[in-house]
Amino acid sequence: MTGKKFVAVLNKKTEVGKVMNALAHATAGLCGKVENADDLGIINYEDGSGTAHWSSKHPFIILRAKNSNQIRTFREALIEKGLACASFNECMTVGGWSEQVDRSKATPEEELEYYGVVSFGDATDLDPLTKKFSLWM
C-alpha cells in the first residue's frame, strides 16, 4: 500500500507570519476538499493522562519555493494530475473575507502572488513533483 502524505510548498520570499497564515488557511481549505475525510488519517494520540491529542498519522512535509512562479507551476502540476490541493495568495490578506473574494475575482491567475500551496495524496504521486524544492528550515 502506498503511503499518503501532506506536502506544503511555501514562498521563501514571504515574511514568516504571512506564510504561516497561508499554511494554516490552505491546510484548512485542503481538508475541506478531500473527498473522504478518513483518508486524512486523523487519530487520537491520547497521552497517559487520558487527554486527547488529535492529529494526522500521515507525514506533513513543508518545503520552500524560490518564488511565486515556482508555486504556480507546482499548483498547475497538481491540478493536471488530479491531486487535491489548496492555495493561498496575496489577495486573501487584505480586508475581510468578502473583500478578499472580490479582490481575487478581479485578479487574473497569472498576476497572483502565491504565498503557498498544500496538497495531500499518495507519496508516489507527490514525490516526483517536489524534488526541486528544499525543506523549509
Comma- or semicolon-separated keywords:
globular, alpha+beta, Bit1, 7 strands, 4 helices, 137 residues
Describe the structure.
With 137 residues, the chain is an alpha+beta fold. The chain has a single domain (4-135), classed as Bit1. It is 35% helix and 27% strand. The protein is built from four helices and seven strands; from the N terminus they run βαβββαβαβαβ. It has helices spanning 16-33, 68-80, 97-105, 123-130, and strands at residues 4-11, 42-44, 54-56, 60-65, 84-89, 114-122, 134-135. It has a five-stranded mixed beta sheet with strand order 5-6-1-4-7. A two-stranded antiparallel sheet has the order 2-3. The radius of gyration is 16 Å and the shape is globular.
Give me the secondary-structure topology.
Elements: E1 4-11, H1 16-33, E2 42-44, E3 54-56, E4 60-65, H2 68-80, E5 84-89, H3 97-105, E6 114-122, H4 123-130, E7 134-135
Parallel strand pairs: 1-4
Antiparallel strand pairs: 1-6, 2-3, 4-7, 5-6
User: Uncertain segments of ≥5 residues (pLDDT<50)?
Assistant: none
Approximately how much beta-strand content do the residues carry? 25-35%
Largest sheet, if any? 5 strands, mixed
Report strand order across the widest sheet. 5-6-1-4-7
Order of helical and strand elements: EHEEEHEHEHE
- Quickly give the CATH architecture: 3-Layer(aba) Sandwich
> Count of helical segments?
4
Kindly provide the name of the CATH class.
Alpha Beta
Let me know the CATH homologous superfamily: Bit1
